[in-house]
Design goal:
Keywords: Antiviral defense, DNA-binding, Endonuclease, Hydrolase, Magnesium, Manganese, Metal-binding, Nuclease. Homodimer, forms a heterotetramer with a Cas2 homodimer. With about 325 residues, this protein is of the alpha/beta class. It folds into 2 domains: about 10-70, CRISPR-associated endonuclease Cas1, N-terminal domain (Ribosomal Protein L15, Chain: K, domain 2), CATH 3.100.10.20; about 90-305, Four Helix Bundle (Hemerythrin (Met), subunit A). Helices cover about 45% and strands about 15% of the residues. It has 10 helices and 8 strands. A 6-stranded mixed sheet has the order 3-2-1-4-5-6. The longest helix has 25 residues, at about 100-120. The radius of gyration is 20 Å and the shape is globular.
Length: about 325
């Protein structure tokens, strides 16, 4: 069987992951799936599985990266093919002007989120914004350049991001139980799918950033203004922040609006999305998680590092 997306995701529990020099073999509880190593460039392991040591050797020798996530989609670690000086831009990242670089990330992310919210609102008769919300977001965007301290930037970033996720809840069916972005364990399918989509995006950006010579751990916004989170690289989070809306959120909210999530998940201590829904989601992500767009953002970030932060917005 050939992978239909440029990555392979093994999620859940109990799979046995092996590889020959040319094929990845995943044995689940009920089926065995084979993926030619030439058909994908990234293996994402989500949850608890058994990974044969020899499989790692075959994957790395075929220039395939491996990223590990816990069952909630939170990063745990990664293995990447590297050679020579792995992160030649590390010293430049340490000297990057934090305020202007963080503000660039915030501005780009807020612009993407406002564009999407306005797009969603234009297609609704009952409106999407509560009174004053649009003005708050607009004012925040115009006032960013006048904020002096890092805590001020952090407050605006957190405020606008939280507002964005709450406003999104009005674009999906109430019975899905989504109200805002939550911390794991997720008890609704929208948050669970956000987490999976962000894991795919994180893994893709992480590989691209390392390939460009950036140290994935050293960020401007993340790590200096707001916490990057456990096992998350600040540089990766900086680069992916403006990409989350166009590459992941559009897909999740779009599928919810189409009714594709209804009755395709179970909730106990956490939300478990059906395998069929996850497969459909991965196919849509393969179209929206654009490698060219990721590489463009990585290159802009790397250029800013090389030029001491003088190359404009990321």
């Amino acid at each position: 069987m050939t992978s239909e997306v440029p990555w392979v995701t093994v999620w859940g529990y109990g799979a046995d992951i092996r590889a020959t020099p040319k094929t990845l073999i995943v044995r689940g509880k009920t089926e065995r799936t084979a993926y030619p190593l030439s058909s994908f460039h990234h293996l994402l392991i989500v949850g608890g599985h058994t990974l044969e040591t020899a499989a790692v050797s075959h994957l790395i020798s075929n220039n395939i990266s491996v990223s590990f996530f816990d069952v909630h989609g939170e990063p745990v670690g990664s293995i990447r093919p590297v050679g020579g000086d792995a992160y030649p831009l590390r010293s430049g990242q340490k000297n990057l002007p934090v305020r202007s670089s963080a503000m660039s990330v915030i501005t780009s992310a807020l612009k993407a989120r406002m564009m999407y919210l306005n797009e969603l609102a234009s297609g609704r008769d009952d409106g999407l914004f509560y009174k004053g919300e649009l003005e708050i977001l607009s004012d925040a965007s115009s006032e960013l350049e006048f904020l002096i301290t890092l805590p001020e930037l952090g407050r605006i970033f957190t405020l606008t991001r939280n507002m964005y996720y709450e406003i999104l809840s009005r674009a999906v069916a109430p019975e899905l139980g989504y109200h805002r972005r939550e911390k794991p364990p997720y008890v609704d399918p929208v948050n669970a799918m956000f987490a999976h989509g962000y894991a795919v995006l994180y893994a893709s950006v992480s590989v691209a950033a390392a390939g460009a010579g950036l140290d994935p751990e050293i960020g401007a916004l993340y790590g200096n203004v707001v916490p990057a989170g456990k096992n998350r690289g600040g540089c990766v989070m900086d680069i992916m922040e403006p990409l989350m809306t166009p590459m992941v959120d559009r897909v999740v909210v779009g599928m919810a609006a189409e009714g594709r999530l209804s009755r395709r998940y179970e909730v106990s201590s956490r939300c478990i999305v059906s395998e069929r829904l996850m497969n459909e989601f991965n196919l849509r992500l393969a179209e929206s998680v654009d490698s060219a767009g990721i590489n463009r953002n990585v290159r802009m970030y790397a250029d800013a590092v090389s030029n001491g932060g003088s190359s404009g917005q990321f």
